[in-house]
Write a structure and sequence with these properties.
- The chain is mainly alpha-helical.
- Helices cover 86% and strands 5% of the residues.
- The chain contains 4 helices and 2 strands; from the N terminus they run αααββα.
- The protein has a two-stranded antiparallel sheet.
- The longest helix has 44 residues.
- It starts with a helix and ends with a helix.
Length: 109
């Protein structure tokens, strides 16, 4: 198959309603969670930089607010990964596989 024909197939599917809907499904999850996490992350950085008295407040024993917020960063990361896995399995994997099969079938023709 010619490179030109392959390019035409890829461009055709990239502009298809099916691919646009798939990309929208991905972005509807990824962008809000990315923005939310970045806000949360930079809030943590700003608090530990400029509100040292606040984050140094002991909660129990040697555990202070900064330590709890740091642990919550890890918890948040794993929670987002888990939520994305569930979302992708339910909303992205099936349509993505179908789209991939259509593209591969047309490229092999």
């Amino acid at each position: 198959m010619e490179t030109k024909n392959q390019s035409e197939v890829w461009i055709k599917y990239q502009n298809s309603d099916e691919f646009i809907a798939h990309r929208k499904r991905f972005r509807s999850f990824a962008f809000p969670f990315a923005v939310g996490f970045l806000v949360w992350y930079f809030s943590f950085i700003l608090l530990t930089t400029f509100a040292r008295d606040f984050v140094s407040t002991p909660v129990f024993g040697n555990i202070n607010i900064a330590f709890i917020l740091a642990i919550l960063q890890f918890v948040t990361t794993f929670a987002i990964a888990w939520l994305y896995d569930r979302y992708a399995t339910k909303n992205l994997d099936g349509p993505g596989s179908e789209l991939k099969e259509k593209i591969e079938k047309e490229l092999q023709a």
